[in-house]
Amino acid sequence: MPDRNRYLLEEARMPGQWYNIAADLPTPPAPPLHPGTGQPIGPDDLAPLFPQAIIAQEMSTERYIDIPEPVQEVFKMWRPSPLFRARRLEKALGTPAKIYYKYEGVSPAGSHKPNSAIPQAWYNAQEGVKKLCTETGAGQWGSSLAFAGGLFGLEVTVYQVRVSYDQKPYRRAMMETWGAQCIPSPSNTTDAGRAALAKDPNFMGSLGLAISEAVEVAAKNEDTKYALGSVLNHVLLHQTIVGQEAILQMEMAGDDPDVIIGCTGGGSNFAGIAFPFLGQQLRGEHGKRRFVAVEPAACPSLSRGKFAYDFGDTARLTPLVKMHTLGSTFTPPGFHAGGLRYHGMAPMLSHVADLGLIEAQAYQQKACFEAGVLFARTEGIVPAPEATHAVKGAIEEALRCKREGKAETILFCLSGHGHMDMAAYQAYFDGNLLDQDYDENELAMALSLLPQVA
Questions:
Q1: Which of 4, 109, 224, 332 sits at 20 to 30 Å (Cα–Cα) from 182?
Q2: pTM score > 0.90 for this model?
Q3: Which Pfam families does its entry note (predicted)?
Q4: Domain ranges of the chain
Q5: pLDDT by residue (tens digit) across 335-374?
């Protein structure tokens, strides 16, 4: 079927296991360290924050981990998600390349985030937890956990980064529709929030600070656990259902990707699409592919960050993890891709980058919105601001193929739609969307404050 544009897996072929890349790495990543002792953490250290099943997944080196049947049943509300061939975009670019995209915006929350929100909520409910607390940037994770919590009878509190809270009011409305409470961060409800407001009453917030607030609430309340939407191993694990489905769908298309692309903030959707394909390569089942992580130029943790031990949050409440970091005190500018405004990159993804298995590219937001508009006008889907970075990366690869006369196959993850982000698109059309650069002095200061680890 040479003109086929859409590849749909039957429900019965949805993967029943998650893939854990830790089983196939040539060297293991550096262990997380206790912030007090500096020693590797154990399960007991994480127990105040996470249920035991999540802790086991966080530390697992098993190649495959079963997806519980109740989680699979919820996934079937929208999974398997579709794979598309972007023929109209190819034609507009005049490229010999073939472009495919895995579309995660078909979930109820409109992004890939429910892939981890559903299992996290289910595991917590199974262990008798009544309340979950979390942070969110653009609101995609917060709305996903609100959705998941409602399904399993959990109260959900979400600390949303203030600049995104103000930019995206309908995300807050979505969370409240599903029964969650949404609080702008920094807030007066936590010590971390009050300290930030005392220093700067107009502080726009950051994901690092919102994490501090959510972790503080979970640590102080026995009936509350913390849920995280990216960065940690168990979240990346949950997202690998995306890449596993894509492998099967590329086989349906009779094609195979030369280049695999995803946007990166904390690393979850990029790992989700890339790790199953990278696992094939690490096991010797496939030749070398290119894996391209696309990040915002205003918050380039892979491109400019230091690979070092750092805290995952601003108030330094979390364990120390070795990752590409801009420094836990670094505050990115308030650009519209709020889900990518995080100072660090997932430790597992950072380790893979350190091994030279992936590469990073960074683009300013106006160029990404330009790519998003072209994609919308050719393929019909309006991408979320975060996802425009992946679109931009795919377009650049397709144009490279055009210059070089190469008919390569490009696959990217379109991690979510932008229906809640139309104010950003309007700002782009009105000429009010500006590229924003981080402060070099602030970056230097944040990196100088990295913890000293022997």
A1: 332
A2: yes
A3: PALP
A4: 6-13+80-110+233-448, 17-66+113-226
A5: 776 678 888 999 999 999 999 999 999 999 999 999 999 9
